[in-house]
Each structure stands twice: as structure tokens, then as C-alpha cells.
Automatic annotation (TrEMBL):
Membrane-crossing residue ranges in chain numbering: 7-24, 94-112, 119-139, 167-189, 201-220, 232-255
Protein name per Swiss-Prot or TrEMBL: KCNK10 protein
Comp. bias intervals (Basic residues): 301-315
Chain intervals for the UniProt region annotation (Disordered): 301-336
Length: 336
């Protein structure tokens, strides 16, 4: 697929995101019924509650309950409560929710609360996930084609080492992708989100692997910045996710092609082996590990070389079976 054909597909993907965010926001705000909700209490609230009761006689069971809550307080815990306030969802929160939804990351920090929102998610996933996979796969293949073009240029200058060039190329692409899409963003998240570097690196891996546990989510709160900065930050995170997933698709495409070539080479070498040689080499591979595969290649190379040498000798010095009678003391080679 050419880049000109990928552009309309990307535009359809973007329209699908913006339109889906508007529908989801409208459904959630329109059909939300105020009533019993779960009011989150984070770890700080729990500590404050304990501090306020230090000088008050508190039952031991309640103290133990507070301690247990503190131990499991990494994620917010919930208690039942009621509210009559209408539900409001920011449009770009809904937009970011759609991004994480159809890329199958699914952090889970935003979930549909209404029947309409849940039905919408089912239909939206049914249509959006295939479109996203097609787009990411197509862009990944184009990026892989660019890498293959560079690889062919290098092979023309070093024609005797195609296998090594392929391995080195894949390693360079993998290391570059890890540096650009994991370590650099981790440093940025450490600065912007206030996480430590390990948590930031963990978040990058969980996001681009589409696992999406949801224990760390970027671009959620914008109280410390302007709304424009909040939106711009979400757009930057979106671009990081999409470009990162495309590069990972390109890496997987290159690795898949390399494994197919390796499989073809092994199958071709196996055809040149006799049954006895194959049994012997299997036992050697069991003892020596990966060295046995090299033995297979060496034997097939020697057999091919002996066949070429034999054919060359027959062409230069034909025997009685490859000659016909001619004049005395001479022969006429038969045509091959």
C-alpha cells in the first residue's frame, strides 16, 4: 500500500476518533441519572481520617480497618455515597478514552456509566479496532520497506554477508525504537508527571505493549496548567502512542520476515541431507546445542562444492561414457 493510500485511511481513523468522542460524551452526559455513586477516597484522605481520631477512643476493629486500607491504598478505594450533580465529561477526556479504547490499551480510568455508553462501546470497538489494526499494520509495513531499501543498499557494498547485515539491521532498528519510544518518553514523563524513572519506563512499556493496566495514566489532571496546555499534552501523548505502535509493527514485520528466511534456509539445507546424516546431526545438536545447525549448513555446502567440482572435471576430461568415436586419437564430447 502506497503512502498516498495510507493518508485517506489515517484521515478516516482521525474522523472516527473525533466523532466517536462526541457521541460518547453526549450519551454519557444525556442519559446519566444522578443517584447513588461511588465516591473515591484516596490514601491522603485515609491518613487524615486516622490523624483526626488520634485523641479519640476508637475501636480496635476500626483501627485495623484503617491500617488495612493504608496497606492497599496505592489505588483509590471506594465507599458508597449519593450525589445530585449532573455528570460532565471533558471532550478531550472522551477523545483520549476513544484512543486508548480502539488501540486496545484500555487504561480503565474512564468507563461508561450509562446503558447507551456501554452499547456504544460495543459497536465502536467492533468497527474501530479492525480499522486501527489495518492502519498500524499498513504503516508498519511501509516503514519496514524503507528499512529493507536501506538494507539492500548496504548488501550491494557487502554482498558476502547478507545474513549478518539482516541481523545487524534488525538490532539497530530495535535499539533505536527502544531509545526513542521508551527511554526518551520516560524522561519526559518523569519531569511532567512527577513519577520516578522506573515508573515512567514501566508506563511506556505497558502502554505501547497495549497491556494498559491503568495504575499509571498520563495527561489526566490539568489543574496545574492551562486548558490549552492540557489539550496539547494529550495530543503529544496521542502522537507518541500512534507512532510508537507503528514502529513496533515495523519491527515485528522485519523479525517475521527474517524468521521466514531462516526457516526457508533450514528447510533447503535439510533436503540435501541423507537419513543417516540427519540422525547423526540431530544427536550432535542435542549434545552441542546450536552448533549442530552450523554442521548441517557445512555439510550441504561441501556436498554442493563436490558436485560442482565433479561437473567441472567431466566438462574438462570426459570419460568413455561422455565421448563418441571420432578420428583416431580424438573424441567428440556429447552435448549436455
Amino acid at each position: 500500500m502506497k503512502w498516498k493510500k495510507l493518508l485517506p485511511l489515517f484521515l478516516v481513523f482521525m474522523a472516527f476518533l473525533f466523532f466517536g468522542a462526541w457521541i460518547f460524551k453526549t450519551l454519557e452526559e444525556t442519559y446519566y441519572v444522578p443517584g447513588e455513586v461511588k465516591i473515591s477516597r484516596d490514601l491522603e484522605d485515609i491518613i487524615v481520617a486516622i490523624a483526626r481520631q488520634v485523641n479519640v477512643s476508637v475501636p480496635e476493629e476500626e483501627v485495623r480497618a484503617h491500617i488495612e486500607a493504608v496497606r492497599t491504598g496505592r489505588l483509590p478505594i471506594s465507599t458508597n455515597g449519593t450525589t445530585t450533580e449532573p455528570y460532565h465529561m471533558d471532550y478531550f477526556d472522551a477523545w483520549f478514552f476513544c484512543i486508548t479504547f480502539i488501540t486496545t490499551i484500555g487504561y480503565g480510568y474512564i468507563t461508561p456509566r450509562t446503558v447507551g455508553g456501554k452499547l456504544f462501546c460495543i459497536v465502536y470497538a467492533f468497527l474501530g479496532i479492525p480499522v486501527t489494526l489495518i492502519m498500524l499494520t499498513a504503516i508498519g509495513r511501509k516503514l519496514g520497506d524503507t528499512n529493507r531499501w536501506v538494507e539492500k543498499k548496504v548488501q550491494k557494498k557487502l554482498p558476502n554477508h547478507p545474513g549478518r547485515i539482516r541481523v545487524v539491521t534488525i538490532l539497530i532498528v530495535v535499539l533505536t525504537s527502544v531509545g526513542i519510544f521508551f527511554f526518551v518518553p520516560a524522561i519526559i514523563f518523569t519531569i511532567v508527571e512527577g513519577w520516578n524513572f522506573l515508573d515512567s519506563l514501566y508506563y511506556c512499556f505497558i502502554t505501547l505493549s497495549t497491556v494498559g493496566f491503568g495504575d499509571f495514566v498520563s495527561s489526566v489532571n490539568h489543574q496545574s496548567s492551562t486548558y490549552f496546555g492540557f489539550v496539547l499534552y494529550k495530543v503529544i501523548v496521542f502522537l507518541w502512542i500512534i507512532v510508537g505502535l507503528c514502529f513496533l509493527a515495523a519491527v515485528f514485520d522485519l523479525i517475521q520476515e527474517w524468521l521466514k528466511g531462516l526457516k526457508t534456509k533450514v528447510n533447503r539445507n535439510m533436503k540435501d541431507l541423507s537419513v543417516d546424516q540427519f540422525g547423526h546431526l540431530v544427536s550432535r545438536m542435542h549434545v552441542e546445542g546450536g552448533k549442530g545447525l552450523g554442521k548441517i549448513t557445512d555439510i550441504t555446502k561441501r556436498k554442493k562444492e563436490r558436485a560442482r567440482q565433479s561437473l567441472s572435471r567431466k566438462n574438462k576430461n570426459p570419460d568413455e561414457e561422455t565421448a563418441t568415436d571420432g578420428t583416431a586419437g580424438s573424441y567428440i564430447p556429447q552435448e549436455w
